[in-house]
Design brief:
This protein has about 230 residues and is an alpha+beta fold. It has two domains: about 90 residues, no CATH class; about 120 residues, no CATH class. It is built from seven helices and seven strands. A five-stranded antiparallel beta sheet has the order 3-4-5-2-6. Strands 1-7 form a two-stranded parallel ribbon. Helix 1 crosses helix 2.
Amino acid sequence: RMDCDMAASNGDLMHTYKDLLTSNKRGERATKSLRRKSWSPSLFVLHLGIKGTWPGIPHHMILFGPRYKGLLDDIYKNGVLPQDFSLYLHHPTVTDPSLAPEGCSTFYVLAPVAHMGKAPLDWDGDVGEALKERILDELERRLIPDIRSRIMTQFHYTPADFGRDLSAHLGSAFSLEPVLWQSAYMRAHNRDDAIHNLYFVGAGTHPGAGIPGVVGSAKATAALMLEDANR
């Protein structure tokens, strides 16, 4: 506990209202409202440190799978773990070799998956390991044929980890789903409507998710706090 004139939360919206404001009526009301909203999908992220360098693999890359709409339906609507995927591959050492030991590379590969409210899978058990192996198969088939023999270190991050480590509601990676009725003014406001010295910033806050939206919300919240402080 601490006394302050203003408080800004960049934590998960549901966590802030449900867990940090448990003794406050505003927290109870906001929690009930948030439970009725739709939440963004989660992610499975595999991090790899491997021997060798690949100047032909760009810093950012998308490996499209065989389906588009059907894959999105499985993630957003059906709540199943598809047998196919589209992958985002991040290869930072092609830009900055100092991010790995000499002659080595770092990658992470990201697969969108349903959040745990739609697909309550056992990510700590066989599900996570099986998806990791399928992703390595795909990288081996399409980019690095001998990738498994080159792996020096690896770990993967699942919806369960988003929930545990970041208190992300349902393990969502992007907070509230950015549909029309949860965007702009309908998203969480930068200043709480009832607790006037409580501010919010982050993916669930106006103007929205994604890096540009989060940076925009940070600027808007900072400006609002400075304006209120100078009144």
